[in-house]
Amino acid sequence: MRKLRRYLVFPVLLALALTAACGREHHGDVVRIGVNDLAQPHWDVFKKKAAEAGITVEFTNFTDYNQPNPALSQGRIDLNKFQHLRYLANYNATDRETKFRK
Asked: Is pTM beyond 0.70 here?
């Protein structure tokens, strides 16, 4: 489990650093991440490791899987954690169909 955590934490920290460096609108030097399991202890480790790398992380906990994508597109969060490619493709297709029906 510890090795798995190491392999997951460092790529995400790199992505956070790159996102922070890209000049996207941020509130200070804070990276806002949407998650759906904030009570899990690995987020404390993640936040500590990010702080060691000079990255301030704020989490927004979502209870509905449909909330993070709109929050991301509206700029309320910078990244979201839960998504996989198949879900995103389905979400985008469904969202597009909904917009065209209006």
From this structure: no
